[in-house]
């Protein structure tokens, strides 16, 4: 499948809960985030092209000046996770305000996994 992503996916080192804002139901946990959308790890699948009001718990309210982020989104895709008990759901944000964009940027900067290869000692076979 061809990658259609325009912004690099940022995997997060925290797991914020994600809710359906209208029902209050926990959808799952935030796995990655960009200015255009997010991936959530969920117990349940969701149909593609479903519009939803999302609410993200923010892990460190003093850092973000709020304890949550509300976003309007659409389910772009839904696939089984490597663990068959879970689903990966891709959400596309329908609109992002300047304030929301700033919070997303701060979250990515503060909690992104650093994907650099650590400087481990060389393996014995190379000595």
Q: Major beta sheet, specifics?
A: 6 strands, antiparallel, barrel
Strand content: 35-45%
Largest sheet: spatial strand order: 2-3-4-7-6-5
Instruction: Return the string of H and E elements.
Output: EEEEEHEEH
Helix content: 10-25%
Under the CATH scheme, the architecture of the domain at 10-94 is: Beta Barrel
SSE inventory with pairings:
Blueprint: E1 10-11, E2 17-20, E3 26-33, E4 37-42, E5 51-57, H1 61-64, E6 68-80, E7 87-93, H2 98-111
Antiparallel strand pairs: 1-3, 2-3, 2-5, 3-4, 4-7, 5-6, 6-7
Record keyword descriptors for this entry:
single chain, 127 residues, mainly beta, Thrombin, subunit H, 6-stranded antiparallel barrel
What does this structure look like?
With 127 residues, the protein is mainly beta. It is built from 2 helices and 7 strands; from the N terminus they run βββββαββα. It has helices at 61-64, 98-111, and strands at 10-11, 17-20, 26-33, 37-42, 51-57, 68-80, 87-93. A 6-stranded antiparallel barrel has the order 2-3-4-7-6-5. The longest helix has 14 residues, at 98-111. The model is unreliable at 9-13 and 113-118 (pLDDT under 50).
């Amino acid at each position: 499948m061809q990658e259609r992503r325009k912004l690099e996916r940022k995997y997060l080192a925290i797991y914020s809960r994600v809710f359906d804002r209208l029902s209050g139901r926990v959808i799952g946990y935030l796995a990655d985030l960009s200015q255009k959308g997010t991936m959530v790890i969920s117990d349940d699948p969701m149909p593609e092209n479903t519009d939803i009001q999302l609410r993200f718990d923010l892990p460190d309210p003093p850092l973000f000046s709020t304890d949550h982020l509300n976003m309007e989104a659409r389910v772009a895709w839904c696939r089984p996770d490597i663990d068959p008990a879970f689903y990966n759901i891709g959400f596309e944000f329908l609109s992002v305000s300047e304030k929301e964009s700033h919070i997303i940027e701060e979250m990515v900067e503060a909690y992104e996994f650093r994907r650099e290869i650590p400087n481990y000692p060389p393996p014995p076979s190379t000595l």
